[in-house]
Amino acid sequence: MNILFMSLGKFNSIMDREIYTDLLRVFIRHGDDVYILSPIDSKDGTSEVINENKSMIIKVMTGRIQKTNIIEKGINTVLLENRYKKAIKTYLSNIKFNLILFPTPPITLAGAVEYVKKRDKASTYLMLKDIFPQNAVDIGLISENGLKGMIYKYFRMKEKKLYALSDHIGCMSPANVEYVIKHNPEVNLDRVEVCPNAIEILDKRINENTRISIRNKYNIPLSKKVFVYGGNLGKPQGISFLMDCLQRCKNMDNAYFLIVGDGVEYSRLEEFIKTGKFVNTKLLKRLPKEEYDAMIAACDVGLVFLDYRFTIPNFPSRLLAYAQAGLPILAATDSNTDIGKIIVDGRFGWWCESNKTKDFQKIIETAIATDLKQMGKNSFQYLEENYSSERCYEIIMRSLNGDK
Protein backbone atom coordinates (compact mmCIF):
# COMPACT_ATOMS: atom_id res chain seq x y z
CA MET A 1 0.00 0.00 0.00
CA ASN A 2 0.88 3.65 -0.37
CA ILE A 3 0.08 5.40 2.90
CA LEU A 4 -0.30 9.16 3.41
CA PHE A 5 0.19 10.34 6.99
CA MET A 6 -0.68 13.94 7.92
CA SER A 7 -0.17 15.51 11.33
CA LEU A 8 1.21 18.44 13.31
CA GLY A 9 4.18 16.40 14.51
CA LYS A 10 7.58 17.62 13.39
CA PHE A 11 9.42 14.68 11.83
CA ASN A 12 13.09 14.61 10.88
CA SER A 13 13.49 10.88 10.33
CA ILE A 14 11.31 7.79 10.07
CA MET A 15 13.66 6.36 12.71
CA ASP A 16 12.54 8.91 15.33
CA ARG A 17 11.11 7.15 18.36
CA GLU A 18 7.63 8.58 18.76
CA ILE A 19 4.16 7.03 18.70
CA TYR A 20 3.57 7.85 15.02
CA THR A 21 6.96 6.99 13.55
CA ASP A 22 6.97 3.76 15.58
CA LEU A 23 3.64 2.81 13.98
CA LEU A 24 4.67 3.87 10.48
CA ARG A 25 7.80 1.73 10.68
CA VAL A 26 5.55 -1.28 11.27
CA PHE A 27 3.71 -0.52 8.03
CA ILE A 28 7.09 -0.28 6.26
CA ARG A 29 8.18 -3.63 7.71
CA HIS A 30 5.02 -5.13 6.23
CA GLY A 31 5.97 -3.85 2.78
CA ASP A 32 4.12 -0.53 2.56
CA ASP A 33 5.45 2.85 1.39
CA VAL A 34 4.86 5.80 3.72
CA TYR A 35 4.56 9.49 2.84
CA ILE A 36 4.48 11.99 5.70
CA LEU A 37 3.31 15.62 5.69
CA SER A 38 4.81 17.52 8.60
CA PRO A 39 4.76 21.26 9.42
CA ILE A 40 7.76 23.55 9.44
CA ASP A 41 7.35 27.06 10.82
CA SER A 42 8.82 30.30 9.59
CA LYS A 43 11.85 30.06 11.87
CA ASP A 44 12.94 26.70 10.47
CA GLY A 45 13.69 27.74 6.89
CA THR A 46 12.11 26.55 3.64
CA SER A 47 10.09 23.45 2.89
CA GLU A 48 12.15 20.32 2.33
CA VAL A 49 11.82 16.64 1.41
CA ILE A 50 13.56 13.75 3.17
CA ASN A 51 13.66 10.33 1.47
CA GLU A 52 14.56 7.46 3.78
CA ASN A 53 13.81 3.74 4.17
CA LYS A 54 10.66 3.49 2.00
CA SER A 55 9.41 6.77 3.42
CA MET A 56 9.21 10.37 2.26
CA ILE A 57 8.90 13.21 4.76
CA ILE A 58 7.61 16.45 3.24
CA LYS A 59 8.12 19.35 5.61
CA VAL A 60 5.46 21.90 4.68
CA MET A 61 5.88 25.61 5.38
CA THR A 62 2.88 26.40 7.58
CA GLY A 63 3.86 29.33 9.76
CA ARG A 64 3.96 28.95 13.51
CA ILE A 65 1.24 26.75 14.99
CA GLN A 66 2.82 25.94 18.36
CA LYS A 67 4.44 28.15 21.00
CA THR A 68 3.01 31.36 19.62
CA ASN A 69 0.12 33.73 20.37
CA ILE A 70 -3.44 32.52 19.92
CA ILE A 71 -4.14 34.79 16.91
CA GLU A 72 -1.15 33.57 14.88
CA LYS A 73 -1.85 29.99 15.92
CA GLY A 74 -5.51 30.28 14.95
CA ILE A 75 -4.83 31.78 11.51
CA ASN A 76 -2.15 29.23 10.63
CA THR A 77 -4.31 26.35 11.90
CA VAL A 78 -7.19 27.42 9.66
CA LEU A 79 -4.84 27.73 6.67
CA LEU A 80 -3.25 24.36 7.32
CA GLU A 81 -5.49 22.24 5.09
CA ASN A 82 -4.88 24.43 2.03
CA ARG A 83 -1.13 24.42 2.58
CA TYR A 84 -1.10 20.62 2.96
CA LYS A 85 -3.29 20.26 -0.13
CA LYS A 86 -0.86 22.42 -2.10
CA ALA A 87 2.06 20.26 -0.91
CA ILE A 88 0.22 17.11 -2.02
CA LYS A 89 -0.34 18.58 -5.47
CA THR A 90 3.29 19.72 -5.68
CA TYR A 91 5.10 16.63 -4.41
CA LEU A 92 2.63 13.74 -4.58
CA SER A 93 0.56 14.27 -7.71
CA ASN A 94 1.82 10.99 -9.22
CA ILE A 95 1.26 8.84 -6.10
CA LYS A 96 -2.03 6.98 -5.73
CA PHE A 97 -2.76 6.43 -2.05
CA ASN A 98 -4.57 3.42 -0.59
CA LEU A 99 -4.79 4.69 2.99
CA ILE A 100 -4.82 8.10 4.65
CA LEU A 101 -3.81 8.07 8.32
CA PHE A 102 -4.31 11.27 10.30
CA PRO A 103 -4.42 12.05 14.02
CA THR A 104 -6.03 14.91 15.86
CA PRO A 105 -4.89 17.51 16.58
CA PRO A 106 -5.61 19.27 14.31
CA ILE A 107 -9.18 18.96 13.05
CA THR A 108 -8.54 21.45 10.24
CA LEU A 109 -7.05 18.89 7.84
CA ALA A 110 -10.51 17.90 6.61
CA GLY A 111 -10.05 19.62 3.25
CA ALA A 112 -6.74 17.88 2.53
CA VAL A 113 -8.14 14.50 3.61
CA GLU A 114 -11.22 14.99 1.44
CA TYR A 115 -9.10 15.95 -1.58
CA VAL A 116 -6.95 12.80 -1.49
CA LYS A 117 -9.86 10.54 -0.57
CA LYS A 118 -11.84 11.66 -3.64
CA ARG A 119 -8.81 11.73 -5.93
CA ASP A 120 -7.55 8.24 -5.10
CA LYS A 121 -10.61 6.50 -3.63
CA ALA A 122 -8.45 5.99 -0.54
CA SER A 123 -9.57 4.56 2.81
CA THR A 124 -9.37 6.98 5.72
CA TYR A 125 -8.43 6.21 9.33
CA LEU A 126 -8.66 8.90 12.00
CA MET A 127 -6.47 8.38 15.07
CA LEU A 128 -8.41 10.45 17.58
CA LYS A 129 -5.90 11.80 20.11
CA ASP A 130 -7.68 15.02 20.96
CA ILE A 131 -11.37 15.97 21.08
CA PHE A 132 -11.41 19.60 19.99
CA PRO A 133 -13.05 22.10 20.37
CA GLN A 134 -14.70 20.66 23.51
CA ASN A 135 -11.37 20.37 25.32
CA ALA A 136 -10.81 24.11 24.81
CA VAL A 137 -14.30 24.85 26.14
CA ASP A 138 -13.65 22.72 29.23
CA ILE A 139 -10.65 24.78 30.35
CA GLY A 140 -12.07 28.16 29.36
CA LEU A 141 -10.07 28.92 26.23
CA ILE A 142 -13.22 29.32 24.15
CA SER A 143 -16.95 29.19 24.92
CA GLU A 144 -20.09 27.98 23.20
CA ASN A 145 -21.69 31.44 23.38
CA GLY A 146 -20.92 35.01 22.33
CA LEU A 147 -18.07 35.92 19.98
CA LYS A 148 -16.02 32.92 21.10
CA GLY A 149 -19.10 30.84 20.41
CA MET A 150 -18.69 31.61 16.71
CA ILE A 151 -15.18 30.19 16.91
CA TYR A 152 -16.54 27.12 18.69
CA LYS A 153 -19.23 26.57 16.05
CA TYR A 154 -16.68 26.84 13.22
CA PHE A 155 -14.36 24.25 14.75
CA ARG A 156 -17.26 21.99 15.77
CA MET A 157 -18.34 22.00 12.13
CA LYS A 158 -14.79 21.05 11.11
CA GLU A 159 -14.75 18.27 13.72
CA LYS A 160 -17.99 16.76 12.42
CA LYS A 161 -16.75 16.98 8.83
CA LEU A 162 -13.57 15.14 9.82
CA TYR A 163 -15.61 12.38 11.47
CA ALA A 164 -17.81 12.11 8.36
CA LEU A 165 -14.73 11.75 6.14
CA SER A 166 -13.30 9.00 8.34
CA ASP A 167 -14.07 5.43 7.31
CA HIS A 168 -12.69 4.33 10.67
CA ILE A 169 -12.06 6.22 13.93
CA GLY A 170 -9.51 4.82 16.37
CA CYS A 171 -9.93 6.13 19.92
CA MET A 172 -7.42 5.99 22.76
CA SER A 173 -9.62 4.12 25.25
CA PRO A 174 -13.14 2.72 25.80
CA ALA A 175 -14.23 6.00 27.42
CA ASN A 176 -13.21 7.86 24.26
CA VAL A 177 -15.33 5.53 22.13
CA GLU A 178 -18.34 6.11 24.38
CA TYR A 179 -17.84 9.87 24.27
CA VAL A 180 -17.63 10.06 20.47
CA ILE A 181 -20.77 7.98 20.00
CA LYS A 182 -22.76 9.84 22.66
CA HIS A 183 -21.93 13.32 21.36
CA ASN A 184 -21.94 12.47 17.65
CA PRO A 185 -24.92 10.15 17.12
CA GLU A 186 -24.59 10.45 13.35
CA VAL A 187 -21.33 8.44 13.58
CA ASN A 188 -21.99 4.73 13.10
CA LEU A 189 -20.80 2.65 16.04
CA ASP A 190 -19.22 0.13 13.66
CA ARG A 191 -16.76 2.79 12.50
CA VAL A 192 -15.41 3.52 15.99
CA GLU A 193 -12.97 1.34 17.93
CA VAL A 194 -10.20 1.43 20.51
CA CYS A 195 -6.81 2.01 18.89
CA PRO A 196 -4.67 3.27 21.78
CA ASN A 197 -1.49 5.29 21.97
CA ALA A 198 1.28 2.79 21.25
CA ILE A 199 5.05 2.55 20.83
CA GLU A 200 7.70 0.12 19.73
CA ILE A 201 8.38 -1.75 22.97
CA LEU A 202 11.91 -1.20 24.23
CA ASP A 203 12.98 -2.22 27.70
CA LYS A 204 14.21 1.03 29.28
CA ARG A 205 14.55 -0.39 32.77
CA ILE A 206 17.96 0.10 34.35
CA ASN A 207 20.08 -1.60 37.01
CA GLU A 208 20.96 -0.17 40.41
CA ASN A 209 24.43 1.06 39.45
CA THR A 210 23.02 3.02 36.50
CA ARG A 211 20.27 4.43 38.67
CA ILE A 212 22.82 5.72 41.19
CA SER A 213 24.96 7.20 38.43
CA ILE A 214 22.05 9.09 36.86
CA ARG A 215 20.79 10.43 40.17
CA ASN A 216 24.24 11.66 41.07
CA LYS A 217 24.56 13.34 37.66
CA TYR A 218 21.46 15.45 38.26
CA ASN A 219 21.90 15.84 42.01
CA ILE A 220 18.77 13.82 42.79
CA PRO A 221 18.68 12.26 46.29
CA LEU A 222 19.42 8.54 46.45
CA SER A 223 17.55 7.99 49.71
CA LYS A 224 14.17 9.40 48.66
CA LYS A 225 11.32 8.11 46.54
CA VAL A 226 11.39 10.26 43.41
CA PHE A 227 8.08 11.19 41.75
CA VAL A 228 8.68 12.41 38.21
CA TYR A 229 6.51 14.39 35.83
CA GLY A 230 7.76 14.67 32.26
CA GLY A 231 6.10 16.48 29.38
CA ASN A 232 4.09 19.54 28.53
CA LEU A 233 3.46 22.18 31.18
CA GLY A 234 0.34 23.85 29.85
CA LYS A 235 -3.29 24.62 30.60
CA PRO A 236 -4.54 21.03 30.03
CA GLN A 237 -2.23 19.73 32.76
CA GLY A 238 -3.82 21.86 35.49
CA ILE A 239 -0.55 23.35 36.76
CA SER A 240 -2.31 25.15 39.62
CA PHE A 241 -3.22 21.77 41.11
CA LEU A 242 0.35 20.55 40.63
CA MET A 243 1.60 23.60 42.54
CA ASP A 244 -0.94 22.99 45.32
CA CYS A 245 0.30 19.39 45.57
CA LEU A 246 3.94 20.49 45.76
CA GLN A 247 3.01 22.93 48.52
CA ARG A 248 1.11 20.28 50.49
CA CYS A 249 4.01 17.80 50.18
CA LYS A 250 6.73 20.41 50.74
CA ASN A 251 7.83 19.09 54.12
CA MET A 252 7.69 15.36 53.38
CA ASP A 253 11.17 14.04 54.19
CA ASN A 254 11.07 10.92 52.02
CA ALA A 255 9.47 12.38 48.87
CA TYR A 256 11.25 14.22 46.04
CA PHE A 257 9.52 15.73 43.00
CA LEU A 258 11.26 16.01 39.64
CA ILE A 259 9.55 17.96 36.84
CA VAL A 260 10.99 17.87 33.32
CA GLY A 261 9.39 19.72 30.44
CA ASP A 262 8.33 23.03 28.97
CA GLY A 263 5.21 24.88 27.91
CA VAL A 264 3.26 28.06 28.56
CA GLU A 265 3.12 27.43 32.32
CA TYR A 266 6.85 26.72 32.75
CA SER A 267 7.80 30.25 33.86
CA ARG A 268 4.93 30.39 36.33
CA LEU A 269 5.94 27.06 37.85
CA GLU A 270 9.60 28.08 37.91
CA GLU A 271 8.80 31.27 39.83
CA PHE A 272 6.57 29.35 42.26
CA ILE A 273 9.33 26.85 43.10
CA LYS A 274 11.97 29.58 43.38
CA THR A 275 10.01 31.90 45.66
CA GLY A 276 8.68 29.00 47.73
CA LYS A 277 12.22 27.73 48.40
CA PHE A 278 11.28 24.11 47.81
CA VAL A 279 14.05 21.74 48.86
CA ASN A 280 12.33 18.56 47.68
CA THR A 281 11.51 19.73 44.14
CA LYS A 282 13.63 20.15 41.00
CA LEU A 283 12.46 21.70 37.71
CA LEU A 284 14.36 21.03 34.49
CA LYS A 285 13.83 22.09 30.89
CA ARG A 286 12.90 19.40 28.35
CA LEU A 287 15.77 16.97 27.67
CA PRO A 288 16.78 15.06 24.51
CA LYS A 289 14.72 11.86 24.32
CA GLU A 290 17.47 9.35 25.15
CA GLU A 291 18.62 11.44 28.09
CA TYR A 292 15.03 11.90 29.23
CA ASP A 293 14.26 8.17 29.04
CA ALA A 294 17.32 7.39 31.16
CA MET A 295 16.36 9.98 33.76
CA ILE A 296 12.79 8.66 33.96
CA ALA A 297 14.10 5.14 34.60
CA ALA A 298 16.16 6.41 37.53
CA CYS A 299 13.00 7.60 39.31
CA ASP A 300 10.42 5.65 41.30
CA VAL A 301 6.91 6.77 40.25
CA GLY A 302 5.65 8.54 37.12
CA LEU A 303 3.08 11.33 37.45
CA VAL A 304 0.19 12.17 35.12
CA PHE A 305 -1.80 15.39 35.53
CA LEU A 306 -4.98 16.58 33.79
CA ASP A 307 -7.17 19.57 34.62
CA TYR A 308 -10.16 18.49 36.74
CA ARG A 309 -12.59 20.47 34.51
CA PHE A 310 -12.23 18.21 31.48
CA THR A 311 -15.45 16.56 30.35
CA ILE A 312 -13.64 14.71 27.56
CA PRO A 313 -11.68 11.52 28.38
CA ASN A 314 -8.06 12.47 27.64
CA PHE A 315 -5.45 9.71 27.74
CA PRO A 316 -1.91 11.20 27.92
CA SER A 317 0.79 9.32 26.01
CA ARG A 318 3.38 10.01 28.72
CA LEU A 319 2.04 6.87 30.42
CA LEU A 320 3.96 4.91 27.76
CA ALA A 321 7.35 6.38 28.69
CA TYR A 322 6.79 5.62 32.37
CA ALA A 323 5.70 2.04 31.66
CA GLN A 324 8.64 1.49 29.32
CA ALA A 325 10.93 2.46 32.20
CA GLY A 326 9.09 0.06 34.51
CA LEU A 327 7.59 2.75 36.75
CA PRO A 328 4.33 2.61 38.69
CA ILE A 329 2.08 5.54 37.76
CA LEU A 330 0.10 8.04 39.81
CA ALA A 331 -2.59 9.78 37.75
CA ALA A 332 -4.34 12.89 39.05
CA THR A 333 -7.08 13.67 36.54
CA ASP A 334 -10.69 14.62 35.94
CA SER A 335 -13.32 11.98 36.64
CA ASN A 336 -14.29 11.48 32.99
CA THR A 337 -11.14 9.86 31.66
CA ASP A 338 -10.65 6.15 32.24
CA ILE A 339 -6.85 6.33 32.53
CA GLY A 340 -7.14 6.01 36.32
CA LYS A 341 -9.36 2.95 36.09
CA ILE A 342 -6.96 1.28 33.67
CA ILE A 343 -3.96 2.01 35.93
CA VAL A 344 -5.70 0.76 39.08
CA ASP A 345 -7.27 -2.31 37.44
CA GLY A 346 -3.90 -3.14 35.89
CA ARG A 347 -2.33 -3.01 39.38
CA PHE A 348 0.42 -0.63 38.33
CA GLY A 349 -0.50 2.56 40.12
CA TRP A 350 -2.97 4.91 41.77
CA TRP A 351 -5.54 7.54 40.83
CA CYS A 352 -7.14 10.59 42.43
CA GLU A 353 -9.17 13.52 41.19
CA SER A 354 -7.10 16.54 40.26
CA ASN A 355 -8.81 18.93 42.64
CA LYS A 356 -8.16 16.95 45.82
CA THR A 357 -4.66 17.65 47.15
CA LYS A 358 -5.35 15.70 50.35
CA ASP A 359 -5.97 12.52 48.35
CA PHE A 360 -2.82 13.16 46.34
CA GLN A 361 -0.78 13.49 49.52
CA LYS A 362 -2.20 10.24 50.91
CA ILE A 363 -1.18 8.40 47.74
CA ILE A 364 2.34 9.85 47.99
CA GLU A 365 2.54 8.56 51.56
CA THR A 366 1.28 5.15 50.44
CA ALA A 367 3.81 4.96 47.61
CA ILE A 368 6.69 5.87 49.92
CA ALA A 369 5.77 2.95 52.16
CA THR A 370 5.27 0.50 49.26
CA ASP A 371 7.71 -1.93 47.66
CA LEU A 372 7.30 -0.72 44.11
CA LYS A 373 9.12 -3.52 42.29
CA GLN A 374 6.05 -5.63 41.51
CA MET A 375 4.00 -2.62 40.46
CA GLY A 376 6.83 -1.64 38.11
CA LYS A 377 6.82 -5.12 36.59
CA ASN A 378 3.05 -4.90 36.15
CA SER A 379 3.47 -1.55 34.42
CA PHE A 380 5.92 -2.90 31.83
CA GLN A 381 3.87 -6.05 31.29
CA TYR A 382 0.70 -4.02 30.70
CA LEU A 383 2.58 -1.95 28.13
CA GLU A 384 3.75 -5.09 26.29
CA GLU A 385 0.28 -6.60 26.21
CA ASN A 386 -1.75 -3.52 25.29
CA TYR A 387 0.29 -0.65 23.88
CA SER A 388 2.67 -1.99 21.24
CA SER A 389 2.84 -0.41 17.77
CA GLU A 390 2.46 -3.88 16.24
CA ARG A 391 -0.86 -4.32 18.04
CA CYS A 392 -2.00 -0.88 16.86
CA TYR A 393 -1.08 -1.87 13.29
CA GLU A 394 -3.11 -5.08 13.60
CA ILE A 395 -6.18 -3.15 14.83
CA ILE A 396 -6.00 -0.78 11.86
CA MET A 397 -5.52 -3.58 9.34
CA ARG A 398 -8.42 -5.61 10.76
CA SER A 399 -10.69 -2.60 10.28
CA LEU A 400 -9.48 -2.01 6.71
CA ASN A 401 -10.06 -5.67 5.91
CA GLY A 402 -13.50 -5.70 7.51
CA ASP A 403 -12.48 -8.16 10.23
CA LYS A 404 -13.63 -6.19 13.30
Number of strand segments: 14
Q: Globular, elongated, flat, extended or rod-shaped: what is the shape?
A: globular
Q: Please give the order of strands in the largest beta sheet.
A: 3-4-2-1-5-6-7-8
The secondary structure category is: alpha/beta
Q: Spell the H/E element sequence.
A: EHEEEHEHEHHEHEHEHEHEHEHEHEHHH
Would you tell me which CATH topology of the largest domain applies?
Rossmann fold
CATH top level assignment of the largest domain: Alpha Beta
Detailed description of the structure:
This protein has 404 residues and is of the alpha/beta class. It has 2 domains: 2-199 and 388-400, Glycogen Phosphorylase B (Rossmann fold, 3-Layer(aba) Sandwich); 208-386, Rossmann fold (3-Layer(aba) Sandwich). The chain contains 15 helices and 14 strands. The chain has helices at 19-29, 70-91, 110-120, 134-138, 146-165, 174-183, 208-217, 239-248, 266-276, 289-297, 318-324, 339-345, 357-368, 373-386, 389-400; strands at 2-6, 33-40, 48-52, 55-61, 99-104, 123-128, 168-171, 192-194, 225-232, 255-262, 281-284, 301-305, 329-333, 349-353. An 8-stranded mixed β-sheet has the order 3-4-2-1-5-6-7-8, with helices on both faces. Strands 11-10-9-12-13-14 form a 6-stranded parallel β-sheet, with helices on both faces. α1 (19-29) links the parallel β1 and β2. The two termini are 20 Å apart.
